Amino acid sequence: MSIDNLKAALPDYAKDTKLNLGSVTTTSSLTDQQLWGAALACAMATRSAQVIAEVAGEAAGNLSAEAFKAAKAAASIMAMNNVYYRATHLIGDEQYSTMPAKLRMTVIGNPGVDKVDFELWCLAVSAVNGCGRCLESHEQVLRGAGMPREQIQEALRIAAVINATAATLEAEAALVTV
């Protein structure tokens, strides 16, 4: 299971996605843990079984067991938080943002890996899930911890390319049945 398998599975019309998938996984200035944690968390956010399996296979060789688990936790917690915080924002009534969420989120405070890495993964998943409020919050934490914008942008690029890969492969699978 690997990124190369995903690249091989992409159709010719998705050449840019294929090239970008190779680029974001081989030319990053992020640490291996940041890169592969973001890729795994984003793959899980896409819900594509094929993308999850291939990325997880490669991520397993680049992440410790703790980091692998934490990346999965980032995908899980943000699946909940992105829905909640996007909804409270989109309603347009700021009173909702002052109300306690009453959702358990202890993993954010104790993720089992460096908090900056976990925040980066949460930001990347929030990009996949389209939650502006969570993107703003995690970006502020990352910038406050001294992470350069260029590295935050890399996590966003990973999110975009993993999402495009999943969308393309899922669409192709659906077209086969037509």
What is the terminal separation in angstroms? 27 Å
Number of strands: 0
Could you give the order of the helices and strands? HHHHHHHHHH
Q: Taking all residues together, what is the mean pLDDT?
A: 95
Number of structural units classed as domains: 1
Large-scale geometry: globular
Specify the number of helices. 10
Rounded Rg: 16 Å
CATH top level assignment:
Mainly Alpha
What is the name of the CATH topology? AhpD-like
Q: Strand pairing plus helix content: what structural class?
A: mainly alpha
Helix content: over 70%
Strand content: under 5%
The CATH architecture category equals: Up-down Bundle
By CATH, the superfamily comes out as: AhpD-like
Q: The biggest beta sheet, please? A: none
Low-confidence stretches: none
Architecture overview:
With 178 residues, the protein is an all-alpha fold. It has a single domain (3-176), classed as Up-down Bundle (AhpD-like). Helices cover 77% and strands 0% of the residues. The chain has ten helices and no strands. It has helices at residues 3-9, 15-26, 32-46, 49-60, 65-91, 95-98, 106-109, 115-129, 132-144, 149-176. The radius of gyration is 16 Å and the shape is globular. The two termini are 27 Å apart. The model has no long low-confidence stretch (mean pLDDT 95).
Give a short synopsis of this structure.
The protein has one domain (3-176): AhpD-like (Up-down Bundle). Helices cover 77% and strands 0% of the residues.
